[in-house]
Amino acid sequence: MPLRFHWRLIQRGGAAAGRGERVAADAALPALDEQAEFCRAAEEHGIDSVLVDINAGKPDPMVFALPLARATRKLKFLVAHRPGLMSPALFVQQVNTFSALSGGRILLNVVAGHSPAEQRAYGDWLDHDERYRRMDEYLDVCRRFWGGSPVSFQGSYYRVEEGRLNTPFVSSESPAPEIFLGGSSPQAREVAVRHATCWMRFADAPETVARDLADGLPALPPSLTVGLRLSVMVRPTAAEAVSEARRLVEEAQASRRGEGEARFVRASDSLSMRSTLALAEEEWLTPYLWAGAVPFYGATALALVGTPEDVAASLLEYGRAGVSQFILSSWSRADEMVRFGREVLPLVRRAELGSTSLAGRSPGSRSGP
Amino acid sequence: MSVPGARNGKPLRFHWSLSQAGSRLRSSVRREDMPGLPDFGAQLDLCRRAEQSGIESLLMAIGFTRPDPLLLSLALGAETETIKFMVACRPGLLSPVAFVQQVNSASAVLPGRICLNMVMGHTPKELGYYGCFLPHDERFEQADEFLTVCRALWRGDGPVDFQGRHYRVAAARVGTPFVSPAEASPEIFVGGNSSQAADLAARHASCLWRFAEPPESLGPRIASVLAGGTEVGLIVSLLARPTREEALRGTEALLAAAGGEAREVHQRLRGATDSVAYASTYGLADGGGSSAWLTPCLWTGAVPSLGPPAIALVGSTEEIVETLLQYKAIGVSQFLFLGWLDLDEVTFFGREVLPRVRAEEGPCL
């Protein structure tokens, strides 16, 4: 199977590295036309889906993604969802409605929430481990609905009696949406093993990822694919890529954004967020994997930085380590996605067809500058 | 024609139900068998026709037999210009904060075109599909808390704290605002014939929807709601034709099309409902035969086969105009119509009925 590439939708117009309140306002009310333009560019450039993420400062991802789906033809939408805020039957009804109105172009990114304060704002008072136990039940109920009616279920968090939904999940590819589930805690991994089609994790050095996939517990079944959250910074030369990445961090420092991020992460009860921030003590995890932006932009800013060849080779190396999907972000500008689609993706596809030696090439010996 | 009170107050407002577009007799079959993937093209046709016919909003019903009304509204709204969507919501299904986030997000996509119809469900069995097992009165109590949180968020005066029996939120906020050129929050309708519904509407809504009944019995029942400053609207089917004879032929055709099994479907639903509006409207239809005419224009003959929303205003253009104005005279200010031949009915309404209503209402202040 060819590697699959997803891209995080930047919900704040063109340049993300804006300032304070303006950024928050832009994120809360993104320009739909610009977002649709980004989505059309993504589908032209071989991106499988765009990730529409979730928090209280942004539009609801399911609602916001639907008009984008209506404005595109084949791009899928990886819609983030936090169980616990609605009835699983209502959620399945929304997902099925989305599928019917988009030709099945919805994937789910199920997240447990990472900020206790934000969860309480929504009326959710469970702690980290309980949120995962509830997520387990929630996905159990959802998958029963996708498996057929009627659904009866009695658990600690949910009870359904002979549940029916007349609107089915509509897709030519599968009877139920693909479920992407992230998180490094054993609880997250357990739920992923039980319910997900793709287990997502933040990036790390390929050998570390490979070791985790092989030895981490609970063991991941072969049917569960592995996805990596990762940023990319691609430039014609490695020096340009590094200098552009550094420039963004300096800009962030100037706007004191890093302080906010570190405070946000300290307040988080997500294990993966905290451990990735700890990773960032070291600036280069491999010759191309740069952690310099993590303190400022969060765990997903762990980035492959380099030339198209460097980045393609690194992605293929992850592929050999067992990763088959990438959920990429560009924490700077939307046109990074186009650059990736034009310059990196063709190299990956060519290597996958075996027409170049790129796949066999080991990353160069450049050490962190 | 001159109906006393016709010229009082604001012009009547008219809304239309999308629920039958593309599956006209859906309420004659078992609910489990109703199509869950309605014909989008037919729905869009009705939206466009309603938009051209002076209809203000389309009711987007909620229930296990249908697609999600909010998402469907977005898809239909993208291909129409001005018509609003009155999105039905059942409070017990989600966090009020998540709900406000969804509604506000939808308003950002369709500015000024989203309003809400809060409904408390009508059959405990169906509510159990969604994990809601509260009895009738508690559902209204839950809705009261739900709307208290929602409206605090829409007021936008800082983070919202709330602790009730059903919901507890701390420092809640929603980044995406409600977007409308005219309003700071969505217009809220509440549906129901019970006293709890009237109380809920008085506290939180601009208008209470009730199923139709004769003006003489309706008047006293809505007096206190009106006195409290909340509007009252009627949900009723419409069968208007150029002449009364044609309208009566329409009722016969409708009953013939509904078929014999439809009565059994509704006997079962009647036994299963805990909605006061449903139970009382089924009750109004009990006489059958000539007693199906509660007034010369208010007909319950289709209710046993097609359910409470099939209580209908039937008559010639003149009769319908007069009836609407009689309701206006007792304080009813909005109508939510269902049509059994949707496109024809809404077209006829817009072309024949509405202009005469406006003429009778006179220039509005």
Can you give a write-up of this model?
The complex is a heterodimer of chains A (369) and B (365). Chain A is 44% helix and 16% strand. Chain A is built from 14 helices and twelve strands. Chain A has an eight-stranded parallel beta barrel, surrounded by seven helices. Chain A has a two-stranded antiparallel sheet with strand order 5-6. The longest helix of chain A is centred in the middle third of the chain and has 20 residues. Chain A is globular, with a radius of gyration of 20 Å. In chain B, strand 2, helix 2 and strand 3 form a beta-alpha-beta unit. The model of chain B has no long low-confidence stretch (mean pLDDT 94). In chain B, helix 1 packs parallel to helix 13. Chain B is globular, with a radius of gyration of 20 Å. Helices cover 43% and strands 18% of the residues of chain B. Chain B contains 13 helices and twelve strands. The interface between A and B is large, with 50 and 51 residues.
Low-confidence stretches of chain B: none
Largest interface: A-B, 50 and 51 residues
Task: Please report the total strand number of chain A as a whole number.
Answer: 12
Structural class of chain A: alpha/beta
The quaternary organization reads as heterodimer
Mean pLDDT of chain A: 88
Cα shape of chain A: globular
Order of strands, main sheet of chain A, comes to: 1-2-3-4-7-8-9-12
